[in-house]
Specification:
The complex is a heterodimer of chains A (441) and B (307). In chain A, 17% of the residues lie in helices and 47% in strands. By secondary structure, chain A is α+β, with helices and mostly antiparallel strands. In chain A, helix 1 (2-26) runs antiparallel to helix 2 (29-65). The longest helix of chain A is centred in the N-terminal third of the chain and has 37 residues, at 29-65. Chain B has two domains: 13-184, 3-Layer(aba) Sandwich (Rossmann fold), CATH 3.40.50; 193-304, Rossmann fold. Classes of the chains: A alpha+beta (441), B alpha/beta (307). Chains A and B meet through strand 10 of A and helix 3 and helix 4 of B.
Chain lengths: 441, 307
């Protein structure tokens, strides 16, 4: 191709050079100039035409060789990204694969250092409330939480996950832990601050809850919104058996969770969580998930003037069950999740042992690709006075504009042990930017 | 006699050690990769796919039962290009299997040697919908890529089981030869209909269209991963009428309401066309996938007179 183009170009150029002398004899300089312009245009058109054909052929050749065809005129325009190679092993686990587009001044060293940046995402959780609630009032409008997530592989042996939640005022390290993926004996080990494996709701971040709030039983018995969320170690092992997925988790924490749940006064006041999870596929579209949980720690009821004179403890017992249905071929349109958690709290105090119990039952049905309807029933004693019983009912409707945002409305009626019944309309906007996180299961 | 003993002994020992290793336990994310891995692995490998061919591979549930499968795997073959980003990473992390962690020897991203289309060149934002920044992940819908995937798999298997290298390479050659012959047949079937205009639901068919000469003029989804909107559907109907498009291709996991409405408006035929092995019952392997899709297309083109 190249020689041909040269020949054509030189012919046109020759014409340009040879043309003028013959023309000067008969015509005015004006006409001459026009003719030259015309020739120049012709030459440019010809050049363009051959250039296009050449790059079309080149991209065809590239396609035939199996390399991704570069777009015609492969020179990146200023402001366009250039590609940098991804190191082997960076793909998967949320990491990139293939050539990465790099924006801005694509200086080699700057570009390649960006590859090792963790996957970053920010999830916004905006909450609004209308109606009357004197017992547990929340603001009318609130940017409830902005959660920043940073996740990456540390080295060939471990990965790290950080979730930092910003309220309107304070900042809280919701989770920040290291996971060893390659320990012998099938042990999955985590070190850091994490949400404890007590039941289901306690392990979930706000933005993956099917409600705008947490159930009463979580608020009353399992440490409020933050739940059991503490610094420590976690070890989980699969228990081999021919029938079901069975996983046992053991966790040791410093012993500080929630406002009134666990409080450590000495280094030895550790809290412990044990969890056993069984999972079984009833069919390809239906499965059941069962859990047993136990937790133990020192509670703050015996602290007088900053000194833990009582040395009182709390034991928590939990049972959870989740039934999921999702027909595979229509999985993006219809699904159902039914869940329940029952929790018993045995809390030692100056006035003796308080045995409180609470539970919730909830169901969520996906009506269509974007619509979900749900309901929840709540009932829970209070941990420090088991004679006080709160109960509530909620109805929910959720709309998903896309995978990355959702709008939710919740009508909630709560009958508190003390004070008038609260009727509230809660609404929530959830939105996520940045790396594509895994869908919750 | 003595000279024969040593080679014989070596052969026996090699055979024994190969047996001692057992079959290669292969898990793939999709049934297409499983079908190709079976072609390459033969009786030296057991192959199982996580997702079914009739489910949307972007939205697979991260079921704990998959963790058990991954825990025992020697090799994990993934489609890559972020197709599985919503569900695979947590499963691999919890698998407790160091062999299949990304970057380990047992982890194979099948896209690395394939021809990838639609790699975005400008700025990528989610205003474009659920766009794949690393290119369109439905690349297996081109038999040329099938051969490349098979070669990657054969090389990976050979690396992990060097004793069986000859078997894997032999099976790869055999698969490639059969696929070459089949591809010639498919191309000949489609040759008279080159340039036929179609509309598809999702961007699942660019590689298929490029190989077999279809001209995709629009999508039922306004943007990848965004469900159809009334305005976009109207625009699409007008465009289809203007260009006299007679075929609408829908993946088996999408709702047929909008496609059928478009079909009624434009007189186009709506085809449920599987982009994966297992997408419909008859499609049990990689060859049957193209057999089925091309027969379906040719029949429909003949019937509607689509151009």
């Amino acid at each position: 191709m190249r020689p041909m183009r040269l020949v054509c170009a030189s012919m046109v150029a020759g014409g340009l050079l040879l043309g003028p002398p013959t023309a000067t004899a008969q015509e005015t300089p004006q006409a001459l100039k026009q003719e030259i312009d015309q020739l120049r245009k012709d030459f440019e058109a010809l050049k363009q035409q051959y250039g296009d054909r050449l790059s079309a052929l080149e991209s065809k050749l590239a396609a035939a060789e199996g390399t991704p065809a570069a777009p015609a005129g492969a020179q990146p325009a200023p402001g366009q990204p250039t590609a940098v190679p991804v190191p082997v092993g960076a793909q998967g686990a949320g990491g990139p694969s293939g050539a990465l587009p790099v924006y801005g001044a694509a200086g080699g060293s700057v570009a390649s250092s960006k590859i090792f940046n963790p996957d970053m995402a920010v999830i916004g959780d905006f909450l609004g409330a209308a109606g009357r609630n004197t017992a547990n009032p929340t603001p009318g409008l609130e940017m409830h939480e902005s959660e920043a997530a940073f996740q990456a592989v540390v080295d060939p042996y471990a990965r790290a996950d950080f979730f930092i939640s910003f309220g309107e005022q304070g900042v809280n390290l919701e989770e920040g832990f290291l996971t060893f993926t390659e320990l012998p004996g099938g042990l999955l080990t985590k070190v850091g601050k994490m949400r404890a494996a007590f039941g289901k709701v306690n392990t979930l971040h706000n933005h993956v809850l099917p409600w705008t709030d947490r159930p009463l039983v979580s608020q009353n018995l399992v440490g409020g919104e933050d739940g059991i969320d503490d610094a420590g170690f976690s070890v989980a092992r699969l228990i081999p058996n021919p029938w079901i997925f069975l996983e046992a988790t053991g966790q040791v924490f410093r012993g500080d969770s929630g406002e009134t749940l666990f409080k450590s006064s000495e280094r030895g006041d550790l809290s412990y969580v044990g969890h056993l999870r069984g999972y079984y596929d009833l069919s390809e579209s239906t499965n059941i998930d069962l859990g047993l949980s136990y937790s133990h720690g020192h509670n703050p009821s015996g602290i007088v003037d900053g000194v833990d004179v009582g040395r009182f403890r709390t034991n928590l017992y939990g049972v959870d069950a989740t039934l999921r249905w999702k027909p595979l071929q229509r999985s993006i349109y219809h699904s159902f999740v039914g869940r329940t958690e029952l929790i018993w709290s045995h809390r030692d105090q100056f006035d003796g042992l308080q045995k409180a119990m609470g539970y919730y039952v909830s169901g969520d049905y996906q009506l269509g690709r974007r619509w979900f309807a749900g309901a929840r029933y709540d009932r829970s004693d209070r941990a420090d006075d088991a004679s006080l019983l709160d109960s509530g009912q909620s109805l929910l409707l959720t709309y998903w504009p896309s995978e990355f945002s959702q709008v939710r409305g919740q009508y909630r009626r709560t009958k508190y042990a003390i004070g008038p019944t609260a009727n509230e309309l809660l609404f929530q906007f959830l939105f996520s930017i940045g790396a594509h996180g895994a869908h919750p299961f | 006699m003595k000279r024969m003993v040593l080679p014989l002994l070596i052969a026996v020992l090699a055979a024994l050690s190969a047996r001692a290793q057992g079959k290669l336990n292969v898990i793939t994310t999709t049934e297409d990769l499983a079908s190709i891995a079976r072609e390459v692995g033969g009786d030296r490998a057991t192959v199982e796919a996580l997702a079914k061919g009739y489910q949307d591979p972007h939205f697979v549930e991260a079921k704990p039962s998959f963790i058990l499968k991954l825990q025992r795997a020697d090799v994990l073959v993934v489609v890559g290009r972020e197709l599985e980003i919503g569900w695979l990473p947590p499963l691999v992390q919890q698998s407790r299997n160091s062999k299949i962690q990304p970057g380990s020897d047992g982890y194979l991203d099948a896209s690395l040697n394939a021809q990838i289309l639609e790699i975005p060149t400008g700025q990528v934002t989610r205003a474009m919908g659920d766009v794949h920044p690393l290119g369109n992940p439905h690349y297996w819908m081109d038999p040329e890529n099938g051969k490349r995937i098979a070669k990657s798999i054969a090389d990976k298997f050979s690396q992990i089981r060097p004793n069986d290298r000859a078997v894997f390479q032999q099976r790869l050659t055999d698969f490639t030869t059969r696929l070459d012959a089949a591809e010639k047949r498919w191309l000949a079937q489609m040759a008279p209909y080159k340039g036929t205009k179609v509309v598809t639901y999702h961007r699942s068919f660019p590689n298929f269209a490029e190989r077999f000469g279809l001209d995709i003029i629009g999508y039922i989804e306004p943007k990848p991963g965004i469900p159809p909107s009334p305005q976009h559907t109207l625009d699409l109907i007008n465009e289809m009428k203007r260009q006299a498009v007679k075929l609408v291709l829908v993946e088996p996991y999408f709702d047929l309401k909008t496609p059928n409405a478009i079909g009624r408006e434009t007189g186009a035929e709506v085809l449920v066309m599987p982009p994966s092995v297992g997408g419909v019952k008859e499609v049990t392997d990689y060859f049957k996938l193209f057999d089925y899709d091309i027969n379906l297309l040719v029949e429909a083109i003949k019937k509607t007179g689509a151009k």
